[in-house]
Specification:
Number of domains: 1
Order of helices and strands: HHH
Radius of gyration: 47 Å
Number of helices: 3
Helix content: over 70%
Distance between the termini: 68 Å
Number of strands: 0
Shape: rod-shaped
Strand content: under 5%
């Protein structure tokens, strides 16, 4: 009867060890799933880096457009200068023709000279006024172009700020997810340690029971009993802590599911 009871106890211990081994395999599978999720997060960070590169290219395109606008304004200024020079040459020719006309009459030479002097002064004042008008027109065009460019750049800056805000929200969500995964990993590691306590205690119990069975009662029975007691204490301690860890694991599993749902919504 004692032998059959010991066999039953050993068989029960074997079943428990098999169950613990299956539980350890489940925990290993959970760790593998966590590694896959970390890889997915690394891929999402790579995608964000590509998006930042596209934004840098857009800023470069805006700078090129500004450079082209400056070249166009320079060409317009050169054309205006050419027109002013032609107008000045035309007025000089008109003045020369007036002088030739005044030289035809000696009687009207004095009055013609005075009139020519007055015409020259009026022409100078007209040229000055024309130059001032041209400068005013050119400055007004420049101011208009600068206002348009400022409006365009402000719109671009607003869009970039919106994109930066979205990226910041995504980064914050990923940081929260990473924190949750780290906590979940710590809980799983704690559960694995407690399962190791249970496994070690059951091994001590099996060892002590086997020694008592095969060697019977003797001087070493105290050592066998000590092994059984130590194994029972270790198994009970690990079992109590493992029950608490299972509760925390369920809580973190629910939070992790919420984090993953929020991350998928941000990606979409």
């Amino acid at each position: 009867m004692g032998k059959n009871r010991a066999d039953e106890q050993i068989e029960n211990v074997s079943h428990i060890l098999v169950a613990l081994a299956e539980e350890e395999n489940k925990l290993t599978q959970n760790l593998i799933n966590l590694a896959e999720k970390r890889n997915e997060m690394a891929e999402s960070r790579t995608l964000n880096s590509k998006i930042r590169s596209d934004l840098a290219e857009e800023r470069t395109s805006l700078a090129q457009v500004q450079t082209e606008d400056a070249k166009i304004r320079t060409d317009l200024a050169k054309d205006q200068t050419t027109l002013v020079r032609k107008q000045t040459e035309f007025q000089s020719r008109s003045t020369e023709m007036a002088e030739r006309r005044t030289s035809l009459s000696e009687l009207r030479s004095r009055y013609a000279k005075n009139r020519t002097i007055l015409s020259k002064k009026r022409s100078d004042w007209a040229e000055t006024r024309t130059d001032l008008s041209s400068k005013r027109t050119r400055l007004a065009s420049l101011r208009t172009n600068l206002s348009k460019n400022r409006t365009t750049l402000a719109a671009g800056r607003t869009q970039l700020a919106k994109k930066r805000t979205k990226f910041s929200e995504s980064r914050t969500s990923m940081a929260d997810t990473r924190t949750g995964l780290s906590s979940y990993r710590s809980v799983l590691a704690k559960g694995r340690t407690e399962l190791a306590f249970i496994r070690t205690g059951l091994a001590f119990i099996a060892l002590g029971t086997g020694l008592m069975r095969y060697f019977g009662v003797g001087p070493w029975t105290i050592l066998d009993g000590t092994l059984v007691v130590m194994g029972a204490a270790s198994a009970i301690f690990g079992l109590k802590r493992f029950v608490v860890t299972i509760r925390y694991e369920r809580i973190f599993a629910g939070k992790l599911k919420d984090f993953l749902t929020l991350t998928s919504e941000l990606k979409s």
